[in-house]
Specification:
Strand order of the largest sheet: 1-2
Largest sheet: 2 strands, antiparallel
Helix content: 40-55%
Structural class: alpha+beta
Number of strands: 2
Mean pLDDT: 87
Radius of gyration: 17 Å
Shape: elongated
Oligomer: single chain
Strand content: 15-25%
Order of helices and strands: HHEE
Number of helices: 2
Length: 66
């Protein structure tokens, strides 16, 4: 029996926004953990300026262990 392809109502996804927001947040968390793990700093925007955060100061969520 062939599997049915899951269809997504893209208009609904964009109108709702939540799945997109969750995917973006997950991607940011993964990128921050990766940067911290390999020892690369990240750049953030604070008070109208670019600020470089060293890897040992990168927050990685609840455990903050990277």
């Amino acid at each position: 029996m062939p599997k049915r392809k899951r269809t997504v109502d893209i208009d609904k996804v964009f109108a709702e926004g939540t799945p997109i927001d969750e995917a973006l947040a997950r991607g940011v968390r993964e990128a921050m953990r990766f940067h911290k793990k390999i020892g690369n700093p990240i750049a953030v925007w604070r008070d109208g300026k670019v600020v470089i955060i060293p890897p040992e100061e990168i927050p990685c969520g609840e455990d903050d262990d990277g």
